[in-house]
Write a structure and sequence with these properties.
The chain is of the alpha+beta class. It contains 6 helices and 11 strands.
Length: about 220
């Protein structure tokens, strides 16, 4: 990436240069260094995570989630990132056979409401790496919505409420608002105050306040 390219945001997947600078993995234990080096050499992605407020400008926090549930974190400069992509669309990822009726219903409802739905978590990792992350009897479906304006945001509750009680698989995930502010869509359905994940901090805010900050108006 060049300095003029937009900085990847949380939930984006990125690939790193295999010839990264010396010292990039120095904060990791020896076995983790070997694992991450092999992962990157194989062309597999890492995911962008929330960054602490005191991180240097132009740096990223990345995460590597492994199929065995291990998690490894990296702190890198943007110039070692060679490519980025958003999380995959729900319609792009393969799902277990037992999940297909639910996913088909959700995909059709989202398309009818004009609300693209992406996925992160185990479904995204499996789709992008080909490794075995999804456990049909235990994994959740992590849904990601990024409504463009207040009208699109207002259509979300009608889409999600009928599906919120589904248990096998359980549906979870976030709504991403203006400025990269993310909230749990389950909390959003409850109204009131919600926990907001900003790019570099956490805070509480009222649903009504966040809605008012969205562009567009709901009649």
């Amino acid at each position: 990436m060049t300095p003029s390219d937009p900085l990847p945001v949380r939930h984006d997947f990125v690939r790193l240069a295999a010839d990264w600078p010396d010292g990039l993995l120095s904060a990791l234990a020896g076995p983790e260094q070997t694992l991450v080096a092999g992962w990157v050499a194989a062309g597999r992605p890492l995911v962008v995570a929330r960054r602490p407020p005191d991180d240097a400008p132009g740096t990223l926090r990345l995460g590597l989630a492994l199929p065995d549930k291990r998690r490894i974190g990296l702190h890198v400069r943007r110039d070692v990132v060679t490519g980025r992509r958003p999380p995959p669309l729900l319609t792009e990822v393969p799902v277990p056979p037992s999940w297909r009726p639910l996913v088909a219903t959700l995909s059709a409802a989202a398309a009818g409401a004009g609300l693209p739905v992406r996925v992160y978590g185990s479904l995204a990792w499996q789709a992008l790496t080909g490794l075995d992350y999804v456990r049909p009897d235990r994994s959740d479906i992590d849904l990601l919505f990024a409504p463009a304006d207040a009208r699109a945001l207002a259509r979300l509750p009608a889409l999600l409420r009928p599906l919120a009680g589904h248990l096998h698989p359980r549906l979870d995930g976030e709504i991403v608002l203006q400025g990269g502010l993310a909230v749990s869509w389950r909390e959003w359905l409850g109204g009131g105050r919600v926990l907001v994940k900003a790019p570099d901090t956490l805070f509480l805010a009222d649903v009504s306040t966040l809605t008012a900050q969205m562009p567009g108006r709901v009649a």
